[in-house]
């Protein structure tokens, strides 16, 4: 069984995807981590004429062990860098195979990201598209960062989320839209448990 979970930055898709993976005992891949790892590898090179080439090389050389450093990869800066490398077509191509193989492993998997239901797993058994309004997403991300002891400027964070959405939406290689056969789940008013229950109900219904 393949479950595809897509949605914008800080929509709660990662938390939902890992909850679904636990519930159905499936492995989970947060595909944003791949883009974050590539972004981190080329951080500081944005104004370099070789930026694209360096990002492509980093994507081609990506080793799964680079995904272990979750703490650094979840930082807001890594998210911004991720969205900058995500607009480079060959970077997406280089990361395609890793995601596809993960999805096709025996027994199935849960993947979350932006283009899972449209590009990586158009054949997924269940597709969810998560949305939540920008303020709710900012507040969730702020609390998450504060729990990790980081200081948060909510105004800056809100703009960062909007900026990332805009870049993701304009990405010509992205396909950041809801697949026709994806079920929309709006989590603006839902806590983690309620959102998970709603997602499980959608998956059960689809099976
Ligand atoms: O999901 P997360 O916020 O970790 O993703 C970071 C960035 O990586 C996104 O803003 C997006 O630009 C990019 N991304 C992508 N395709 C995916 C997952 C993430 O382009 N499947």
TrEMBL record:
Main localisation: cytoplasm
GO molecular function annotation: ATP binding; dCMP kinase activity
Location within or outside the cell: Cytoplasm
Cross-referenced Gene3D superfamilies: P-loop containing nucleotide triphosphate hydrolases
Binding residues for ATP: 7-15
Gene Ontology biological-process annotations: pyrimidine nucleotide metabolic process
Enzyme class of the recorded protein, top EC level: transferase
One CC-aspect GO term: cytoplasm
Boundaries of every Cytidylate kinase domain copy: 3-203
EC nos: 2.7.4.25
Catalytic activity: dCMP + ATP = dCDP + ADP; CMP + ATP = CDP + ADP
Keyword ATP-binding: yes
Alphabetical keyword list: ATP-binding, Cytoplasm, Kinase, Nucleotide-binding, Transferase
Classification via HAMAP family: Cytidyl_kinase_type1
Family designation: Belongs to the cytidylate kinase family. Type 1 subfamily.
Protein name: Cytidylate kinase
Species assigned in the record: Devosia pacifica
Gene assigned in the entry: cmk
């Amino acid at each position: 069984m393949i479950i595809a979970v897509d949605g914008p930055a800080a929509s709660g898709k990662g938390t939902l995807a890992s909850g679904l993976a636990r519930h159905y005992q499936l492995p989970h891949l947060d595909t944003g981590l791949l883009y974050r790892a590539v972004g981190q590898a080329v951080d500081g090179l944005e104004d370099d004429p070789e930026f694209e080439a360096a990002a492509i090389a980093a994507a081609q050389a990506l080793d799964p062990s680079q995904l272990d450093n979750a703490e650094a990869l979840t930082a807001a800066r890594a998210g911004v860098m991720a969205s900058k490398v995500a607009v480079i077509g060959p970077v997406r191509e280089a990361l395609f195979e890793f995601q596809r193989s993960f999805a096709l492993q025996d027994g199935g998997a849960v993947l979350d990201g932006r283009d899972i239901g449209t590009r990586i797993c158009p054949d997924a058994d269940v597709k969810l598209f998560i949305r939540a309004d920008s303020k709710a997403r900012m507040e969730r991300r702020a609390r998450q960062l504060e729990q990790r002891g980081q200081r948060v400027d909510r105004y800056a964070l809100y703009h960062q989320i909007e900026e990332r959405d805009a870049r993701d939406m304009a990405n010509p290689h992205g396909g950041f839209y809801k697949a026709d056969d994806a079920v929309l789940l709006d989590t603006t008013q839902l806590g983690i448990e309620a959102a998970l229950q709603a997602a499980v109900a959608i998956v059960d219904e689809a099976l």
